[in-house]
Amino acid sequence: MRKPILLSILLICSVFSTIAQIKVPGPSGTRLLKEDALTKSGMEHLYNLEYDQAIAEFAQVMDKHTDDPFAINHVLQAVLLKELYRLNALDTTLYADNGFLTGKALDGDPKVKQRINELEERTIQLCDARIKLDPKDAECYYARGVARGSKLSYVAVVEKSFYSALRNALASRHDNEKCLEVDPTYTDAKLVIGMHNFIVGSLPAPVKVIVGVVGVTGNKKKGLEYLTEVANANDEASVDARVALGLFLRREGRYNEAYEVMKKAAERYSRNFLFALEIANALKDAGRGAEAIAAYEQIITKSRAGQLTDPHIERAEYGLAESYNGQRKPREAFEHYQAALQSPKVEVEVKIRAALGAGQMLDVMGQRDKALEHYRMAISIEGDSSQATKAKKFLSEPYHYPN
Fold first, then answer.
1. What single-letter DSSP state applies at residue 382?
2. Contact 265, 243 (CB under 8 A)
3. Domains and their CATH numbers in the chain
4. C-beta of residue 199 within 8 angstroms of C-beta of residue 13
5. Which of 53, 61, 212, 284 could make an SS bond with 45 (beta carbons 3.0 to 4.6 A apart)?
6. Would you tell me the crossing angle of helices 348-364 and 330-341 to the nearest 10 degrees?
7. Which of 333, 343, 276 is nearest to 91 (CA)?
8. Which sign does the torsion angle of CA 122, 123, 124, 130 carry?
């Protein structure tokens, strides 16, 4: 069994099911009312990346509904998403290939990990008790799957702990499948199942046999159908289904469809930096260079004007550089690769890609000595990465635009 293949399944599924598993349950006993004002407000903050406000409001609701697993999960997911965003782990561009899988564990905050574990355990204990009393409690199967999915996200993305992530992935999928078995109309549960189906269904036949041994099966067509159904349901999970669906359509080369899928989410949550970035990324991948350049420039302008929440401008600068590169404008591309490199927020993955891109543009412009400096920079950042491997190649032969 090849560890990177299964890690790719775990990482992608976990990252893009994170927000999606937040659900406001209907009235039942002490459970939250769908129109609970603080919960609705918390959701708005969450989708606009205003994590501190979301956590504060969700926590107030949880304190009033201590036996509601959904109220606990709201806090759990907001805490997790804040940490993933802090660690720059929510940009789908970094999941366009599997190069990120060879990276090291991220520098997670131990206090956040402890908080995630505590909240997950609270939800699981509540759900276990309720399921014992009523084995057909669909909402508790779903809520337990949410908690396990959160643990999956942390151990897979932050710690890159393969076996722990695999256990949580199988348990989370099982809970969502059980939820649907009990209540076939519970559309939100199709999100995680849809993502697993698509990813496993996309693997080569021999690999499917391998992963099938540990209980992971999939069908790509069914996965896309499930994700489309959730995206079109206009429920709490619909926006997140669009994020996952947009990513998978991009991986399929269906870039214009990916753009249309993400457009609604970006329009609905206008302060969300990641959604704006997704729109620009889809345009770039679709070969709509001029539109992509305009979209990235708009992100940079809005970011500097304070119109986007906690923006990572270096990512837009990198995307802008890639767009100019695609237009074969090396001087402009180099300028923006450099801007990404010089950003105080730039993380390892973007930094190494920008260093490589800058070196390539310098080669194209005939500045070989400076190009070599940038290739060596890329190698020094993380020498065993796929990007460093490319940089090593250009140490011996200059980069040229392909014919």
1. -
2. yes
3. 1-183 (1.25.40)
4. yes
5. 53
6. 150
7. 276
8. positive
CA distance 305 to 313: 12
Helix or strand holding residue 257 (H, E): helix 255-268
Paired tokens of 311 = 């923006």
Q: What are phi and psi of 312, to 5 degrees?
A: -105, 85
Least confident segment among 191-200, 211-220, 223-232, 234-243: 211-220
The C-alpha atoms of residue 297 and residue 276 are separated, in whole angstroms, by: 11
CB atoms closer than 10 angstroms to residue 306: 9
Q: Rounded to the nearest 5°, which phi and psi values hold at 265?
A: -65, -40
Say how far apart CA 365 and CA 359 lie, in whole Å.
10
Rounded (5°) CA angle 185-191-192 = 120
Q: What is the model's pLDDT at position 26?
A: 42
350 vs 337: CA distance, rounded Å: 10
pLDDT tens per residue, range 39-90? 999 999 999 999 999 999 999 999 999 999 999 999 999 999 999 999 888 8
Please give the C-alpha separations between residue 63 and each of 66, 132, 218, 342, in angstroms, as whole numbers: 6, 25, 39, 44
Decide: 20 and 241 in contact? Cβ < 8 Å. Answer: yes
Q: Tell me how far apart the terminal alpha carbons of the chain are, to the nearest angstrom.
A: 38
* DSSP secondary structure letters along 20-89: GG---PPS-TTSPPTT-HHHHHHHHHHHTT-HHHHHHHHHHHHHH-TT-HHHHHHHHHHHHHHHHHHTT-
**What does the DSSP 8-state code read for residue 157?**
I
Amino acid 101: pLDDT: 46
Q: From residue 27, give the alpha-carbon distance in Å to each of 70, 73, 302.
A: 12, 17, 40
